[in-house]
Design a protein that fits this description.
It contains eight helices and nine strands. The protein is an alpha+beta fold. It folds into two domains: 141 residues, no CATH class; 61 residues. Helix 6 crosses helix 7 and helix 6 crosses helix 8.
């Protein structure tokens, strides 16, 4: 049995997969689950975004996308579709990368996943070095306390997680700030005071855990 599992993060530039292209066209951010490659070469995609209309329009005009479905959950839209174009990530998956999450932003992507042991990591790294636009950002050991969903790890409510994710996507925490509290609240379809209260409660919970 292999005792060591490593978390890796890759940045991907220049991927011409439909979701990367759509986020570039719509200047949007989308959080995707690991793509599922079928035996016929088609890819099942599932992702969410707060820029539903713009992203849907970009995907609707892409001939590589079929059976696009959209559902709304609060301020975010969930999409499912079939893509006729594989992503770069499949080359890394084939060599042993276990993808946990993918975030696309304006055509670029950040992959976060795991590899079991250094031998598998070496194979994934060799594939990444041969793949145009893929750069390793971080490698660190997986600890037992890390192997949990963030909401469970930090004791955040679903509404607090949603508020923080939306604020991050809109640039509320960027320097300089790209969106104020009112804009984030509008995206969440709540009042400004409600957003700020969620944010303060989430920060208080995070800080208690971090500095206990």
């Amino acid at each position: 049995m292999i005792d060591e599992c490593l978390i890796v993060e890759f940045d991907v530039e220049g991927d011409d997969c439909p979701l990367a292209s759509a986020t570039a066209t719509a200047s949007a951010t989308a959080t995707a689950q690991p793509p599922q490659l079928r035996e016929d070469g088609n890819v099942l995609l599932q992702f969410s975004t707060s820029a539903g209309d713009d992203l849907a329009a970009a995907l609707d005009t892409d001939s590589r996308i079929r059976y696009l479905h959209r559902s709304t959950a609060g301020p975010r839209d969930n999409f499912r579709c079939l893509s006729k174009h594989p992503c770069i990530v499949h080359e890394l998956i084939s060599d042993g990368l276990l993808v946990d999450s993918i975030q696309y932003q304006n055509g670029a992507a950040r992959l976060t996943g795991a590899v079991v042991g250094h031998t598998v990591l070496q194979g994934v790294m060799e594939t990444a070095s041969d793949t145009v636009g893929v750069q390793l950002q971080r490698v660190y050991p997986l600890r037992e306390e890390d192997d949990e969903p963030v909401a469970q790890r930090w004791d955040l409510t679903p509404s607090q997680v949603e508020s923080i994710e939306t604020a991050c996507e809109l640039g509320y925490f960027a320097i300089p700030r790209e969106a104020d509290a009112s804009k984030v609240a509008d995206a969440l379809d709540i009042s400004k005071s409600a957003f700020l209260e969620r944010l303060r409660r989430a920060q208080a919970s995070l800080f208690r855990d971090l500095f206990a």
